[in-house]
Amino acid sequence: MNKLEKILNMSEREKQEKGLEFTPKEIFQQPSSWPKTWEVLKENQKELKAFLDDILGDPGCRIVLSGAGTSEFIGNGCEAYLRRTLNVDVDSRATTDIVSNSEDIFIPGRRYLVISFARSGNSPESIGTWNIVNEIENAKQIVITCNAEGELSKIASKDDASRVLILPEETNDQSLVMTSSYSNMMIAAIGLARLDNLEAYAEDLAIASSAGRQILSQVDAIADFAGRAWKRAVFLGSGQFRGVAREGHLKMLESTDGTVMTRFDTFLALRHGPQVSVDSDSFVIAMLSDDPYTRQYEMDLLKELKNQGKYGALLAITRLKDESLQGLANVIINLQGPEDSVIPMELRAATDAIVCQLTGMFCSMALGLKPDAPSLDGTINRVVKGVKVYDHKKYRETGRFVVIAE
Hints:
Layout lengths: L2 H6 L3 H7 L4 H6 L1 H14 L1 H12 L4 E7 L2 H17 L2 E6 H7 L9 E8 L5 H11 L5 E6 L5 H6 L5 E5 L13 H12 L6 H20 L1 H8 L5 E6 L2 H16 L5 E5 L1 H4 L11 E6 L4 H16 L5 E6 L12 E4 L13 H19 L22 E2 L1 H7 L4 E3 L1
Parallel strand pairs: 1-2, 1-3, 3-4, 4-5, 6-7, 6-8, 8-9, 9-10
Antiparallel strand pairs: 11-12
Helix pairs in contact: 4-10, 4-11, 6-10, 6-13, 7-8, 10-16, 11-16, 12-16, 13-16
């Protein structure tokens, strides 16, 4: 029995006392939950395809992916794939930017599809963004959410220019940290570009689920890696993996209540100043690309860090077998599907995140915190608090601040 299985087999009372009632279960369930999200796509396939075809047929359309915190990083992780696959302009923008600076984002006269990601659908910025976009002429919206009872789901479902995709109830994480909700909303977003052939997407998801289970089987190595009293953590990824690295850095920051200071970046960008954050008290998680050209740059950086003795430990996530990693990484997580099937690189935005989630949870436990609620003074909460969102249109017309969500 590995360390995650031991946690899952604790008594309910012990789980509650240690703050392990939700986070371990929600991490563990991910590979088995992804096919269920595929079922949601299948049930809505015809309606979604017609809805998307209408706006994608406009050569001037632009897709904006939106959310806050982890929900924003979903868009960061699938933006490149959607742009490449749909062959349209796709841009990932935080709801926190849209509610405060929407005129910097939306160009008058352009046609927009805004895809919003929301675990609860109750954060003020999610509601504020929906209202702002609803005022844009010819704009459409898709809401991907884990909560059928959330405010965002309720208001969007009543609007003819919006569609709501409600994911299985189990994806609505009860832990403070988002895990299963992140990966399932990612799976749903990528699936929007696969509506022409969802059967092929189901086969790819089966490979991804197998890779996810393979990561979970290596949990002891991840737990041992995370168990030291680290002071810093650096998450590296190129292209789409920069978005996953950004999610990894937030998971660590949240899970350790800010005790472990974190950094994310691309491999090449790290040299331009941020490399000073890597020292012997820091660990590095490197998500290595499948693309040989990109990977060459990544390996150059890792070799440089090793030669300089910069990091305390390195965990590398890779699909490609590479003997040169043996001398660089303390832990190597190899992603191989059934019978050496190849996991599509875009789906690694879901699988690689599991490694970051497990690292965050075990670091949290090593610090004596409760992973379900690691914030000792309540600075952060499951649903953001303290935010007032003002009516943008009324302010422009009257100069008055009218609260529309809080």
